Amino acid sequence: MTATAPVAVVIGAGDATGGAIARRFAREGFTLCVTRRNADSLSELVTRIEADGGKAHAFGCDARNEDEMVGLFEHIEREIGPVEVAVFNIGANVRFGITETTARVYRKVWEMAGFAGFLTGREAAKVMLPRGKGTIIFTGATASLRGGSGFSAFAGAKFALRALAQSMARELGPQGIHVAHPIIDGAIDTAFIRDNFPERYALKDRDGILNPEHIADQYWAIHTQPRDSWTHELDLRPWMETF
């Protein structure tokens, strides 16, 4: 791997899906730039990627902050390498009844899942367009398609992210940039699901919850599609999930 290896940026490289995506692209020879609000929480992921022979850089970054996002992409392009893939994977799933949803909660969720996605997509597009190639992936959810009881803030933000992805795909596709919006429709194998929804987690043995590694495989497949057969939106769900 050299300093000129293509770079994949994962905004929101958590312990499950985001980390799995980062590891998947690292196995394909990409240099990974992974972010969370606290860079220290990325040490285990970086160590694992490096132990597997890959290369990764951790950044503490608030994706809602315009200056930080502008600086992040400028630093990566200047010091690490050309960004070929950008994945926006920040979760903002909260549940409150409408009368208990404060203005602060609604605004914060929109900032995390909507506005931060805009900043990520804009900065990725800026560096990809001069090269005429690249992939930008926004992680969607069930709430991207339909609002549920208690999810007014989350659904509003995920609807906004989906609209952003559609607009960017129509604008950037003719210029060589593949914009995709995978919808994760189901519980994911995470510590949160294990600890808070044990009945749902028990379905793991029946392939009833999503494996982050398998999600990551689909993200890699999206990136490697020929441009005469680009996917914009696909949904991933366990076989037993209703829809």
Automatic annotation (TrEMBL):
InterPro entries: NAD(P)-bd_dom_sf, SDR_fam. It comes from the Bacteria. Coiled coil: none annotated. The lineage of its organism: Bacteria, Pseudomonadati, Pseudomonadota, Gammaproteobacteria, Pseudomonadales. This is Short-chain dehydrogenase. Pfam families: adh_short (PF00106). It comes from Halopseudomonas oceani.
